[in-house]
């Protein structure tokens, strides 16, 4: 997976796998290329090491507090305890929060990818009268923030009697994920040559079957990336869940974390353990989509 | 047989492609209908209702006062509410500092991990990892680091840096930079990813040609890299500025807008007045003001950067 990430945009002369040791004299590159490609090594490693320190120390700190016994001040987490995890999972109902977050995340993923796939296909393959207006609406909606919509959305869900139902959060998350997802997916579909589809029609496939048999398999990486964004985003997002769900057994993980942060006597071990629980699915998904991340962005988001 | 079928299907396939048949003409509308309806119902309608509410007194806890208000909600914001102007000033400061630093650090980071070096793949995934972390999780992590009795300051004080028991989050002098650092931690990787994606699309032979002509690295950066990145930088800066202005997760949970309201942004003030204060009318007026500011700044920014104009 990491090797795949290294491959992108790397000139062919560099092996995909990083060699275990710095190259010795025989592997030296031709002199001419040094001028544009070879920075002195320390100018890369030193700033990168500093930045890595800034990136990783906070993660280490959370892990440390999560597994270190209460009252310990050691910077090395030994002996390791699972007491904080058990407490957060059972007493602070993170078990229920986790389940609710999973439901919201998976439902948002499914809804966003299906609706965006249909819309993205229309935008990529057809010319129709309101297409430009629709594209403009998609781009404009990027500038309309979720936080500013809280008041009217709260009103709408109250009228629909959906306050305190996970469905309200799923709808809100899906709606705000849709524009970017649709732009990304239509970008991915445009990259699939129309001639492939036409060949399938010529062979007697219906449009639907041609799409399923020819286009969909080629879209898989893009769909995985878009779906993962939708999942991670709704897993992390806090405000909709906080505002639309007032019963405790309907809450999601970020709201649970916030109650731990706001507690009068802050139980740091529990807070850290809750943080680790919140991070685990995101880390798994992130590891999964990494290799599509940069290509995904260059295909759709940046080029708009 | 397959051939015969192909011949029989050909006219139909051709008609579908040109989109003159009845079914294909309706098909695109059917396909965008779910997305379109969702966005009409949950984005367009709410936007319009915000304008409507902003002209009314609408407070759930004071139903006897509800009714048409005209511009009263707006005059209240501009002339009576001292919090409004300080909030506006803080929002501007927050966006400018945050986006400026993210752009500078993100550009450096993207240029660094775009180089070829041993361990690049691992370095990339590690420096980008905070990107996936949410506002509340970021808050959780930095709460642990900023904790006055067991956080970073205690260990730093042990080796002689700073003093024991300082809480950067309850001091009005330090809370701004404490929040900025926490937000940078997860914001810089995102910026770097966007810029890196564009860096990779620069043809390598441009640099080879430039170095044959004797251009040094600085000149190559100024004359090849920067012009190429221009559009991506403009777009991602704008998106990021809007996002940093709108996002409430981090400040809501890290500082709660305090101490003494010094870290309240306009959207945070809207959430507090609307949802917690139940004053929907005033919150809607504030929302409208925020819309107008966003729109105005976006147009101004795109005009100033000549984005989308003719670049002949």
TrEMBL record, chain A:
It comes from the Bacteria. Pfam families: BPD_transp_1 (PF00528). The chain crosses the membrane at residues 44-67, 102-124, 136-154, 166-189, 210-235, 268-289. InterPro entries: BP-dep_ABC_trans_perm, MetI-like, MetI-like_sf. It is a multi-pass membrane protein. One of its GO terms (biological process) is transmembrane transport. Residues 1-32 are annotated as: Disordered. PROSITE patterns: ABC_TM1 (PS50928). GO terms for cellular component: plasma membrane. Its main location: membrane. Coiled coil: none annotated. Keywords: Cell membrane, Membrane, Transmembrane, Transmembrane helix, Transport. Belongs to the binding-protein-dependent transport system permease family. This is Transporter. It comes from Streptomyces kanasensis.
TrEMBL record, chain B:
The lineage of its organism: Bacteria, Bacillati, Actinomycetota, Actinomycetes, Kitasatosporales. It is a multi-pass membrane protein. This is Transporter. GO terms for biological process: transmembrane transport. The keyword ATP-binding does not apply. Keywords: Cell membrane, Membrane, Transmembrane, Transmembrane helix, Transport. It comes from Streptomyces kanasensis. Pfam families: BPD_transp_1. Residues 1-12 have a biased composition (Low complexity). Belongs to the binding-protein-dependent transport system permease family. It comes from the Bacteria. GO terms for cellular component: plasma membrane. Residues 1-20 are annotated as: Disordered. Residues 88-301 form the ABC transmembrane type-1 domain.
């Amino acid at each position: 997976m990491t090797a795949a990430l290294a491959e992108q945009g790397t000139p062919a002369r560099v092996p995909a796998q990083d060699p275990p040791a710095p190259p010795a004299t025989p592997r030296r590159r031709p002199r001419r290329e040094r001028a544009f490609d070879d920075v002195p090594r320390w100018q890369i490693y030193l700033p990168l090491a500093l930045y890595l320190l800034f990136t990783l120390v906070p993660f280490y700190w959370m892990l440390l507090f999560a597994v270190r016994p209460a009252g310990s001040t050691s910077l090395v987490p030994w002996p390791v305890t699972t007491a904080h995890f058990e407490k957060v999972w059972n007493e602070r109902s993170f078990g229920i929060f986790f389940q609710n977050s999973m439901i919201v995340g998976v439902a948002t993923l499914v809804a966003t990818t299906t609706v965006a796939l249909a819309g993205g296909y229309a935008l990529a393959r057809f010319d129709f009268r309101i297409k430009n207006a629709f594209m403009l609406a998609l781009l404009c909606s990027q500038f309309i923030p979720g936080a500013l919509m809280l008041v009217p959305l709260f009103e709408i869900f109250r009228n629909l009697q959906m306050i305190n139902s996970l469905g309200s959060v799923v709808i809100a998350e899906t709606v705000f994920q849709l524009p970017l997802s649709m732009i990304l997916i239509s970008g991915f579909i445009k990259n699939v040559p129309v001639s492939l589809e036409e060949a399938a029609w010529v062979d007697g496939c219906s449009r639907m079957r041609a799409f399923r048999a020819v286009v969909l398999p080629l879209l898989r990486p893009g769909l995985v990336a878009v779906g993962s964004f939708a999942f991670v985003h709704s897993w992390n997002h806090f405000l909709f869940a906080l505002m639309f769900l007032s019963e405790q057994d309907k809450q999601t993980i970020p709201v649970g974390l916030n109650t731990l942060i706001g507690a009068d006597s802050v139980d740091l071990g529990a807070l850290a353990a809750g943080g680790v629980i919140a991070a685990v699915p995101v880390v798994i998904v992130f590891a999964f989509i990494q290799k599509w991340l940069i290509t995904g962005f260059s295909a759709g988001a940046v080029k708009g | 047989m397959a051939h015969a079928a192909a011949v029989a299907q050909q006219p139909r396939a051709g008609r579908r492609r040109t989109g003159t048949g009845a079914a294909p003409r309706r098909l695109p509308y059917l396909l965008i209908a779910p997305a379109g309806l969702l966005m009409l119902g949950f984005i367009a309608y709410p936007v319009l209702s915000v304008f409507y509410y902003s002209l009314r007194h609408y407070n759930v806890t004071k139903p006897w006062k509800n009714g048409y208000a005209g511009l009263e909600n707006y005059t209240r914001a501009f002339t009576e509410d001292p919090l409004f102007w300080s909030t506006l000033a803080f929002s501007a400061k927050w966006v400018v500092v945050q986006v400026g630093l993210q752009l500078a650090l993100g550009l450096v980071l993207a240029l660094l991990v775009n180089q070829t070096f041993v361990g690049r793949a691992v370095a990339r995934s590690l420096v980008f990892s905070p990107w996936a972390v949410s506002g509340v999780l970021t808050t959780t992590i930095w709460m642990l680091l900023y904790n006055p009795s067991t956080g970073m300051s205690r260990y730093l004080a042990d080796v002689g840096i700073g003093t024991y028991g300082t809480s950067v989050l309850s001091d009005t002098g330090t809370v701004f930079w404490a929040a900025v650092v926490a937000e940078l931690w997860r914001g810089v990787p995102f910026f770097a990813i966007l810029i890196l994606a564009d860096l990779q699309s620069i043809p390598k032979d441009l640099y080879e040609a430039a170095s044959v002509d004797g251009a040094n690295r600085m000149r190559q950066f100024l004359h090849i890299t920067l012009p190429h990145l221009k559009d991506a930088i403009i777009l991602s800066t704008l998106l990021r500025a809007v996002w940093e202005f709108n996002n409430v997760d981090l400040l809501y949970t890290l500082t709660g807008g305090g101490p003494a309201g010094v870290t309240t942004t306009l959207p945070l003030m809207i959430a507090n007045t609307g949802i917690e204060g139940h004053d929907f009318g005033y919150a809607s007026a504030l929302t409208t003001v925020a819309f107008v500011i966003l729109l105005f700044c976006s147009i101004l920014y795109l005009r100033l950067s000549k984005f989308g104009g003719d670049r002949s």
